[in-house]
Amino acid sequence: MMVFHPAEYKFRCIVDGCHRYLIVARELNTLVLELDVAMTEMEKPLFVTSETTVAAGELSAGGIAVQVTPTTIILAKEGELMETIRVDTNFPIAAASIVDPYIALQTQNGRLILYRLEAGDTRPHLSEVGKLAATIIHSVNIHRLTYRFKFQRG
Predict the structure, then answer these.
(1) DSSP string over 122-133
(2) CATH superfamily, with its number, for domain 3-132
(3) What's the pLDDT at 154?
(4) Measuring CA to CA, how many Å separate 29 from each of 52, 55, 73?
(5) How far apart are CA 129 and CA 115, in angstroms?
(6) What is the rounded CA–CA span in Å between residue 92 and residue 109?
(7) In whole angstroms, how far apart are CA 138 and each of 36, 37, 52, 104, 127?
(8) 5-52, pLDDT tens digit by residue?
(9) pLDDT tens by residue, 100-140
């Protein structure tokens, strides 16, 4: 178990709250640290640690932690595993972009798979929106459109 001492690392909550996990991708595996008074390696497996992490982020306005590995998508909320999706593809996931409510995946052979977080009757879950297999892509990125209005007199 790895423990980082609070004298070396101090965490402060900003106005919108604190982050709970630090997901560190290594070449062949992943290290997941819980952020509390100290950074401590998680003892209870919540995320995939036996593979590298392609991307990590948040959905549901920060309420759901997301991990994307070459084969799997993990959703966790309040320290509990919500959903594990084994991605149905012959090639591993090479890149991912996570922007509420979407997760876009790029496979190693250049295909796109798009998921959306759905607010179900019982609990939120991911559903596959679609796949783009007709063309090979080299990069995937989702951006949120933000409207800004400028009022003028006259």
Answers:
(1) SS-EEEEEEEE-
(2) YVTN repeat-like/Quinoprotein amine dehydrogenase (2.130.10.10)
(3) 54
(4) 4, 13, 15
(5) 5
(6) 8
(7) 38, 41, 20, 13, 24
(8) 444 444 444 334 556 788 899 999 999 988 776 778 887 879 999 999
(9) 999 999 999 999 999 999 986 678 899 999 998 878 888 88
Q: What strands lie across the sheet with 64-68, from one edge to the other?
A: 55-59, 64-68, 72-77, 80-86
* Domain regions of the chain by residue span: 3-132
Q: Which residues does 10 contact at the CB level (< 8 Å), separation at least 6?
A: none
Write out the E strands in the chain: 3-4, 21-25, 30-35, 39-41, 55-59, 64-68, 72-77, 80-86, 93-99, 102-107, 112-118, 125-132
Question: Apex CA 87: angle with CA 81 and CA 93, to 5°?
Answer: 105
**Spacing of C-alpha 110 from chain mean position:** 20
Show Cβ contacts of residue 98 under 8 Å, excluding neighbours closer than 6 positions.
55, 56, 57, 58, 59, 66, 68, 104, 142
Place of tokens 């796109």: 112
